[in-house]
Amino acid sequence: MPTGPGGSLTWPKRIGWASGDAGINFYWQGIGIFAYFFYTDVLGISPMWAGIAFAAASFWDAVSDPIMGAIADRTRTRFGRFRPWILFGSVPCAVAFALMFWTPPLEGGWLVAYAIASHILLRTALTAVSIPFSALTARMTQDTNERGLIAMLRLMFAASGALAVSFTVPKLVEMFGDEQKAYFYAACILGAGATAILLISFLSTSEPPEEIDSPPVTIDSKPILQVFCTDLIDFWSTLRHNRPLALLFAAIILSGITTAMNSKVLLYWIKYDLQDPSVMVWLLPLPALCLVLLAPGWTWIARKWSKRAAWLSGTLFSSASLLLFYLLNPHDTPLLIVITVVGATGGSAGLIMFWSMLPDTVEYNEWFRGERSEAKIFGFATFGQKAAYAINALLLGQLMTSIGFVADQPQSPEILANLRAIMCLIPLAGVLGTVAIMWRYPIDAQFHARLRTDIAERAKGRANVAIV
User: Fold this and answer.
1) How far is 265 from 168, CA to CA, in rounded Å?
2) What is the C-alpha to C-alpha distance for residues 224 and 278, in angstroms, rounded to an integer?
């Protein structure tokens, strides 16, 4: 089987690289599913301040992503541009994760300050690993179908990571009966596992030598904040000229602001409406399990029709699930399982297609503007995603406060109905919005093949000129 940046990868490289996302998702799912609930119902922070703490870290994360992209694009080592960050950032991630889910002997403003500081520390360490890890997809191969395959594998491993987190935390809470100890021990266990997985990913991957991958890049000696500002201005210029990236960027921002409400509020629905915390052990891992099983199907649909078709098909399932959950309020276990599986089916399509489409926009940028900048594009794409999560957290804090929610108190029927509306109707509006945006996404397999041919012909022309 041929290997290299222009063709297929070997299975050990595919699986080795993709497995790293399991480790990354130990952290990311711990943040996305449990952090806000941990702040309000374990640390005892008010919903408003929990939202502010979460948003502050997310805004910092959004800013640090493109900075990390700029640093990674300028990195030159014997391990490559991106791989050394995976190696040396893994242990700091594990330490920061444990600190984030530790309950310190603090109260009031000091407790909020600790929550913000520990969360920012984790996001910084995680950015140093996740941005270079993601940027490897555009550097390991330039074949769009290969990228679709490794994106599918990546999401399967990401789902495995989510599965582990979703099972481990509730199980330890059930075992210990002490949420403070359970969250801290779970963070320590998951951090150790993530470190081992990221080491395997580092050892399994490689990067092409600079001289055969692209023209030499001059290392910018300007201060990194100045570089960031320059790159930010350039990125907005890129969005104006790179229509596929602009559409994908808009869709992921809208999705981050709205659909993230569902996973955050689900824990409150389980605790206060369903009033059966034991279901978390199987209900929270269920979407991740569905992603593992369904990822090959969405990849097949993307290959047979297009990535856009797969994305839009997934929104039908997501919309149906959200609407049914709001209308039926499923306390019956079989109905709850069915609605959850339908929602997970739709959600998996968007996840897989986003990470499969993003590298294609890198090629579009090279074709249209003559530059690739993989890490910068990945960095600013996740910048938008995490800025959206910050807005989501602030909005959730406002909404939870406005409906009169107080942690660890009986909730009135009105508050429970409002919680369900936040959980279902806001995400539903976001899903429908992404349909309107992605309906116009232009890159399919034929389009991508044409632009790759054009890029190759230009490179051949430049080589011939250099020889002459």
Assistant:
1) 19
2) 48
**Is residue 77 helix, strand or coil?**
strand
Mean pLDDT of the chain: 86
Q: How far apart are CA 296 and CA 433, in angstroms?
A: 26
Q: What is the pLDDT of residue 186?
A: 94
| Residue 130: strand, helix, or coil | helix
Cβ proximity of 58 and 393 under 8 Å: yes
Per cent of the chain over pLDDT 70 is: 91
71 band by pLDDT with thresholds 50, 70 and 90: confident
One-letter amino acid at 124 equals T
In this predicted structure, which of 25-39, 130-144, 387-401 has the lowest mean pLDDT? 130-144
For 232-242, what is each residue's pLDDT tens digit?
A: 777 777 788 88
Tokens of 351: 């996840």
Rounded distance between C-alpha atoms, residue 216 and residue 201, angstroms: 26
The CATH number assigned to the domain with range 11-208+238-460 reads: 1.20.1250.20
Q: CB count, 10 Å around CB of 74?
A: 16
H/E run at residue 1 = none
Tokens of 307: 């990535």
- Residue (of 66, 69, 67, 72) closest to 85 by Cα position: 72
Q: Which residue has the tokens 């920012």?
A: 120
Helix (H/G/I), strand (E/B), else coil: 274: helix
Residue 78 is classified by DSSP as T
CA–CA separation, 374 and 106 (whole Å) = 43
